Fold:
Amino acid sequence: MNQIKAMQNDTLDSIAYRYYGNQSVVMLPALLEANSTLQHVVLAEHQVIHLPELVQAQRPQTIKLWD
Structure:
């Protein structure tokens, strides 16, 4: 698990978007769980934030019915 330091006026939403891009909505619950001890919405500057690893969802296997 990686760690970063929050910038001024950061929130977990903004950090998720900055580090996970279009996967931020998927990763936000894991980010919240990894930082469950946080007490404020707006983070303190230089506060250490734990970043969980981005996990790619597996695609369901498809069956080809015709050639």
